[in-house]
Design a protein that fits this description.
The complex is a heterodimer of chains A (170) and B (395). With 170 residues, chain A is of the alpha+beta class. Chain A is 51% helix and 18% strand. In chain A, α1 packs across α2, α2 crosses α5 and α5 crosses α6. Chain B has 395 residues and is of the alpha/beta class. Chain B has two domains: 130 residues, Aspartate Aminotransferase, domain 1 (Alpha-Beta Complex), CATH 3.90.1150; 245 residues, Type I PLP-dependent aspartate aminotransferase-like (Major domain) (Aspartate Aminotransferase, domain 2). Chain B is 39% helix and 13% strand. Chain B has eleven helices and twelve strands. In chain B, the strands form three sheets. Chain B has a seven-stranded mixed β-sheet with strand order 2-8-7-6-5-3-4, with helices on both faces. In chain B, α6 links the parallel β5 and β6. In chain B, α1 runs antiparallel to α7, α3 runs parallel beside α4 and α5 packs parallel to α6. Chain B is globular, with a radius of gyration of 22 Å. The chains are: A alpha+beta (170), B alpha/beta (395). Chains A and B meet through β4, β5, α2 and α7 of A and α8 of B.
Chain lengths: 170, 395
Amino acid sequence: MSQIGPYTKKVMEHFKNPHNCGRMKNPDGVGKVGNVICGDVLWLYIKVGKNKKGREIIKDIKFETFGCVAALATSSVITDLAKGKTIEDALKISRQDIVKSLGGLPAIKLHCSVLAADALSEALYDYFVKNKREIPKELEDKHRTAEKAKKEIGERYEDWIELEEEMHKK
Amino acid sequence: MRKKIYLDYAATTPVDPRALKAMLPYFTEKFGNTMSLHSFGQEAKEALERSREAVANLMGAKPREIFFTGSATESNNTVLKGIALANKEKGRHIIISPIEHDCIAESSRFLETQGFEITRLPVDKFGLVDPADVKRAIKKETILVSVIHANNEIGTIEPIEEIGEVIKRKSEILNLKSKIYFHTDAAQSFGKIPIDVNKMNIDLLTASSHKIYGPKGAACLFIRQGIKIIPLLHGGGHESGLRSSTSNVPAIVGFAEACRICKKELGKESQRQSKMRDKLIKGVSKKIEDSHLNGHPQKRLPNNANFWFSFVEGESIIIQLDLLGVAASTGSACSSTKLEPSHVLLAIGLKPQEAHGSLRLSLGRWTKQSDIDYVLKVLPEVIRKLRAISPFKRK
């Protein structure tokens, strides 16, 4: 695959024209994650609907990211991967799927794909909790790990997050 | 044709065609080894000594006080480790600033593992070292103080002369038998602002060729006469035994020619670049809200502008700029091999998320007014675009 700098063409396409970016009004689930090492932050919003067979699907998905090229590209590509999928299938999306869809990532940027995968499972977790659903064990485990990182990121971005929450209220 | 504007002269510079012209014969006709006694060797040796003079001239040193090395990193390693080894019986305490280049910072960390004590001075929000802090940090066991002349990231110029003065006076007060040596890493400042090692009380100074339009692979260390340093490289005894290795004559000749050009053009050029730098800084602060200048507003290199922008990340900024034909650099964790934000930006008090959005634009000999105008046109749009995607926004 052809490269531009350290990144594949696919990564650069997503970086230049990210898909499904921006804030979502009244989402059904929100996943807010951050990487404690590099400091990147990714917020993912989902809206859940039903398909013709009556199964729940991710009807709409949007992201907002504060981060590098790889963080923006993984954010964008996970929205493509998840959009239209049943919740069951969306839960199966792994970070390897993300890396594969991008034609690879530099080794030092692989953690960005973890961030994107975590954001999606956090958004689904949020949806499950809000709707008082039973939470699959795997999702519960992922949530517990993400929670730890979230606390650290929350402290780091305290000022900015307050700012953001106020804006949401408006 | 796609625009290509290079604003990363602090990383490296292209070789000035005049320096290249001076180098070329030394690859082919005048290729001798400076240690050979025949005419080929002597021809190369003469070129080497003429080069030494030119480099010495640009810092007010004597030619025999100039020692050629392969890089500024090598010069800095030589100073830290070589002075430490040569003086370990006198003392094992070294003072550095917290905004040194990695090669000083890492050499210091290495020396800590070898039983040396390192004091890292504080700096203010502009990155300035207070000479009074140097005075306080000096003790009987101190053997070396090393403070960068002008910082490579934020461009702040340190009060080197005053620090040198303080070291001298404190040594007298402590009635030390041996001198505390004062080193400055001038890789970014040499050739860009005036340097006089005597007037500025400098004992050891590092300078580099590829930052001043000479080739890569040549640098030097000024060592005031009488100072002993244990070499890193032992062997044939080149550079008066300080640095064994066959002399890289073409690169050294290019370095020397680059020095001659700087000496001639320094005054005019630093004025020209300062004006463009100020236009850039003013333009950015006017056109981009929530943008902040890093480094000192006045005491800074003529070619350095460094900002941080709230709510966006630096690697994304530089890749966006690259797509628009502008080459720049960032201190963001995302662009570092260690995934840590720049230690310089943290030292001047930036929070990690603030250092995340840093951008360095460094000007040079071929920067034009129209380049600055172009950056001022495209940069606000780049920041706006990235902010639209960011979860964090202005109230």
